[in-house]
Amino acid sequence: MKRDRPQSQSRAERIRKYGVMQFGDYVAEWKAGQRDLGPASLRHLDSLLEHHLFPAFHSRRMGTFDHKVVDAFIQTMERNGAGLATQSNVYDKLKAILLDAHRLGLYDDSPLDGVKPPQYDPKRAVIPSACR
Question: Is CATH 2.60.60.30 the right assignment for the domain spanning 9-124?
């Protein structure tokens, strides 16, 4: 009988542990590992989590994310009138979290494959000049 390789065993253990974990709990662990974030970046992350990601995903099981879930979330932000800069920032945080889960082996295919991210182009922003 062929023995399971330790690597596949550890992946199976990670899937068992993190696949059923709720997004909110997973993010708490992920956030604790983000040692390079300064106070302002942490406040920004907390704001994006509180206002956008947690209302949509807090209790969702990590193993249930796929490209359709991510696409539907982006479409919901569009329908709700979130600005492109906000959509882009929220997507970037969701992407970082889901890529972390993908690296753990939770998904065979990245839940971001085939997703068209929000197209924010900061070059198009117009900053009004002060009138005198």
Answer: no
